[in-house]
Design goal:
The protein is α/β, with parallel strands linked by helices. Helices cover 42% and strands 12% of the residues. β7 (160-163), α6 (169-175) and β8 form a beta-alpha-beta unit. The longest helix is centred in the N-terminal third of the chain and has 17 residues, at 49-65. The radius of gyration is 16 Å and the shape is globular.
């Protein structure tokens, strides 16, 4: 089984239903069983409270259309902690979603994230946090792995997925090495040789999760990071499905 832990419907035109069908059309070509989707139909890096609800509604529509293949993560924002908590109750506690997505409106260790993380601990769901280290400098509010480590160390009972392995994965993977409640998401970026091998070496295979970042990246290029890696088949199985299955209680 292959479960893609990081997908979007934002670069696919049309309704939530047609976007879901198109994503899964290509997932089928790569034997991907299920996809985790988040962030609505358009990327909103500085969402208003109403945007969180609208984007989560879009994902809920996709889940209702393809409940057999899609899993949702709710969009939350430290700029709107009360609205985010309401969305966690609506979409997770009383809905089908199984995690949350934090993007770039504030750094991961912003105080507004604290009640959100505490609620995720209560619900037993993971937090997918965008991270990147950019040679040209990050966007304002865009987290590096250091920001995520700061948050994760405050909440050792929470489970975090560090999106993109920090972007510059040679640094990102080393930064989270000693923070055991952070898992590395392999998605995004070019399929460079050595990323998956280094993640397994530094973190152990149980802390590494496959994701593609589709539709911003192709399934094939991201799967190549795992199938082309010099790792054992047991570790490959953990990365492709078993770890994320455990995290989301699938």
């Amino acid at each position: 089984m292959i479960i893609d832990a990081h997908c979007h419907l934002t670069q696919i035109n049309g309704s939530a239903q047609s976007a879901a069908d198109e994503l899964l059309y290509y997932a089928d070509k790569h034997a991907i069983s299920k996809c985790i989707v988040c962030l609505g139909d358009k990327l909103k890096p500085q969402p208003m409270a109403k945007d969180l609800r609208e984007d989560n509604d879009y994902i809920l529509s996709a889940l209702e259309h393809r409940p057999d293949r899609l899993i949702g993560f709710a969009y939350a924002s430290p700029n709107h902690p009360e609205a985010s908590l309401a969305e966690l109750d609506r979409c997770i506690a009383n809905g089908p979603m199984r995690g949350i997505k934090l993007w770039i409106c504030q750094h991961a260790d912003h105080p507004g994230n604290r009640p959100i993380v505490e609620r995720c601990i209560e619900l037993g769901v993971p937090i997918l946090q965008h991270t990147w280290i950019k040679a040209t400098g990050n966007q304002e509010g865009e987290s590096t792995p250091y920001h995520l480590v700061s948050l994760a160390q405050r909440y050792p009972r929470a489970q975090f997925l560090m999106a993109h392995s920090g972007g510059e994965w040679l640094q990102g993977l080393r930064i989270i090495k000693h923070t055991p409640n952070i898992f590395a998401d392999l998605c995004g970026g070019a399929p460079e040789q050595g990323q998956t091998e280094l993640a397994v070496k530094l973190l152990g295979a149980k802390r590494v999760v496959f994701g593609s970042d589709a539709g911003g990246r192709s399934f094939a290029s991201q799967l190549a990071k795992v199938f082309g890696a010099d790792i054992c088949e047991e570790d490959r199985g953990l990365i492709l499905a078993e770890n994320i299955t455990r995290m989301i209680g699938l």
